[in-house]
Amino acid sequence: MEEGHGIAARGVRPILQAAAGLELVRKRAAMGRSGKMKKHRMEEGRQLQQQKAERQRAVDDNLSTQHQAWKRSIAFQLSSTSARPAASDTAASGSTAPRKDKDGFVQPSRRLFNGTVAHKWLSVRPVGAGLRNMGNTCFLNAVLQCLTYTPPLAQLFLQQQHAKHCETTGFCVQCELERHVTRALHTKDPICPKHIVFNLRFIARHFRPMRQEDAHECLRYILDGLHSSCLRGHEHVSAAVKQTTVVDSIFGGHLRSQVRCSNHQHRSNTFDAFMDLSLELAGATELTKALQHFTKPERLYGDNQYMCERCGKKVDAEKRLSIHTLPLVLTIHLKRFSFTGLHDGKVSRYVQFGETLDVGPYMSQPQKTCYRLFAVLVHEGFSCHSGHYYCFVKSPNGTWYCMDDTSVRNVSLKTVLQQKAYVLFYIRESAPSTAQSAPATPAKPAALAAKTPAQSAPATPARSAPASSAAPAPAA
Fold first, then answer.
1. CA-to-CA distance for 355 and 373, rounded, in angstroms?
2. Annotated catalytic residue within 146, 216, 388, 391
3. Span 228-243, pLDDT tens digits
4. Would you call 384 a catalytic residue per the annotation?
5. Nearest to residue 147, comparing CAs of 425, 421, 356, 388?
6. Residue 278's closest CA among 78, 56, 28, 463?
7. CA distance 449 to 166
8. 421 beta partners
9. Catalytic pick from 119, 138, 333, 384?
10. Does the annotation count 370 as an active-site position?
11. Residue 439 vs residues 128, 157, 161, 276, 339: alpha-carbon distances, Å
């Protein structure tokens, strides 16, 4: 038996050895195949890297060529502009350098609006319609009524020059205001400004129907929308020329900020465009006191010293704001709302203002310049989160009216002057040189026409001096 078992063991061993040999052959073959595959993949990876590097070199070479061409182009443009001004400005003015006054204020080389605007009503007409409140829209109604009874703007809109040439598809704030003013001044029945209310988001992105907003903020957005509609087709003109639209001819002015060095009395002037003045009340009980505070010199000393370009170091200095160029219509915003975290409030005291206003003492070159009141916008309430807006306007027949949504009632001048005003509208008694007492007649329809067949984009706030603090809007 033992001998038989030994024979069996000797017979199985070769079989097992053969099987092990075959398994080893299969493993070596598999390793060979995997090695070849790995090598092949590595080769493919190297080829892909080479192709990628070649493409990147081609891109770099192309960019380098473009960059060199761009540098040559810029160098040519710089050498060209150093010899002559921009063609768009030179063609109109024929001058070889920007025109400046003695204070360094750059005069526009040409004007987008070369027509004239009337600073008085050209015909006597009765007061127009009241406006329906569509749900927290008293802020909009008050602003629309003040603009409707702004003589130069209303008479411009009554001619409907913009709508005749406008090519904008969708909502256009200037077209809609032309239609609204024309309708409001030709009827006594209350009207509903639904087309403006339903398109508030095109005046300002955050405006929505049925939601309370701030009346001054709404006014600024509407004026900026009007300004933008006049710039369509003139996007590439200089900044000075952009400030010569018909809207600027009515509401636009410039402030001068002058810093005077205490060592050599060296003066440095900068200028900013504005469409309204925002005045801090700062304890003022009169409008003239608020204007005096607005133009009061400010000392720059200590950590707030001025870096004088003439002295080449920081020095004590004096800074003063003043009105450099006057608007035809002067809009004054009294900053009644205060925002201090959780304790928002309102300055509700009465601030005295008159039917006339001499702004001469607040100008860069003082001279007697008289303005006359024609509209007052009022907020009634205790804070920016609640209340109601209404306004007082002077109609074309010279009578004052209180416009409170649909209510239109006659009031006396004494009543108007007793109001706690939020926004005041004054018009210059004698027209400035760029605006004569004549109907508004644009030199070219393109200055008023919208030339882009696209829906009007929401505007940015109109220029204000200084920019008023944006407030959560009072309730209607």
1. 5
2. 388
3. 888 887 888 888 888 8
4. no
5. 425
6. 463
7. 5
8. 378
9. 138
10. no
11. 20, 11, 12, 24, 43
